[in-house]
Amino acid sequence: PPVPFPVVKRLVERSLGAKLSEHFSDFDEKPLATASIAQVHQATLAKNKKKVVVKVRIADVRTMVGDVRSMLHTTLVMKRLGLDNGVDFPTIFRAYLDVIAGEFDFTAEAAKINEFRELFETHGLSDRVAVPVVIEDLSTSEVLVMERVRGVKLLSVLNRARRRGRRPLVPAAAAKVHVDGGIGWDGVFDTMFKCWSVMLLRHGHYHSDPHPGNFIVAKDGRLAILDWGQTQVAPEAYRLHLCRLVVSMVAEDYPKIAEEVRLHSQVQLERPTTEALAALCYAYFDTRPTPLAEVNMMDLNNSPFLQNRITQNTQEGFFTIRSVFLLRGMMATCGVTSSMVEAWEEDARAVLRASGDRTVPSVIRSRSRRMLTRTWLSLQKSLNVGAGARLNTLEAYTAGSMDDANVGAGRAREDPRRMSSLW
């Protein structure tokens, strides 16, 4: 629930060391948004009548950290008892513990906002992407004042479309601004892909909370990215690992994907087969729809992870994976099925070249490999043999149709109990 305005007023005045009226000619008592850490209000600056938003810290960092630690201890017990669905939840909560404290420091957030605005300008994205402008002299570790971005929240657009049972329409200005990346929503999401490619692969520091409430489609059509409290640093070794994965995933070189995971990833499966590791990578790091990406990990009756458990998840990669899942969810509502790794390939290749890696296959070789893989896998699926049979079984299992569907044309039904050997 929203924090009462008298409390917010007291927090702002204490942080700024002055009465609210000294800095603001108007301060809306009704919040624009309330979250677990902060509450946001509209206001007008007294000195120049500029419209701003004021983000006020309302939570206590010690309480929040204590809550997450309690959840970590609970998931450790669940894992020991075999009740974690084979997903390794403790690693996820450890990842959250790494970033929570940073979200409470609005001075650090202000610095990150300026950092990423400069990054987008450097890489030629500022004509498509906007980052709020911080009012430096009114911002502290507890209060962050920014110029207001005019437009409509992406969350509102998506929710309105869901209520109407139809796909959302792209604002005309946005369709025009992002047209180089595709028609309609395809162009908007292509811009998102490029932003996260630049931040994660090239810069090694990225926004790790891209839910629809953190995007505004501005009146000028640009995509405004909000709430820079939760960001994640990607160490060089992890960035290079991701770049190699991206190149192999675009080529659909499954043995190479599996080799990369075995050698350089923190992820460990009970049975790290090539098919299982490749399927997991496409679910974790790409936005195109895949059988594994549609799995509800909390569904005890429909999770292949129960048959091939994740004995160790990736703490360093958790927020990358979470970002992919959030983007994929928005894309599904908008009817977009494009591949993020394909949009990332150019940056991935550039980073690997700059690192001195001479083992990266050429684009021509990569495309040839993909064509060969698709042809061979399509044949195996139609004959229900080899990797094609394993993929057929995974698709049927995750769709919840193992009891009803024939896996492969004219083939006998697969026994769900065989998933242990197939996945």
Description:
- It contains 16 helices and 13 strands.
- The model is unreliable at 401-423 (pLDDT under 50).
- With 423 residues, the protein is of the alpha+beta class.
- The longest helix has 21 residues, at 363-383.
- The chain starts with a helix and ends with a helix.
- The strands form four sheets. Strands 1, 2, 3, 4 and 6 form a five-stranded antiparallel sheet that branches. A four-stranded mixed sheet has the order 5-10-9-7.
- The protein is globular, with a radius of gyration of 24 Å.
Descriptive key words:
423 residues, alpha+beta, 5-stranded antiparallel β-sheet, 4-stranded mixed β-sheet, 16 helices, 50% helix, globular
Short description:
This protein is α+β, with helices and mostly antiparallel strands and 423 residues long. Helix content is 50%, strand content 12%.
Structural class: alpha+beta
Report the biggest beta sheet as strand number plus sense, adding barrel if it closes.
5 strands, antiparallel
Number of helices: 16
- What share of the residues does DSSP label as strand, in percent? 5-15%
Distance between the termini: 44 Å
Radius of gyration: 24 Å
Helix content: 40-55%
- Principal-axes geometry comes out as globular
E-strand count: 13
Mean pLDDT: 87
Order of helices and strands: HHEEEEHHHEEEHHHEEEEHHEHEHHHHH
Uncertain stretches: 401-423
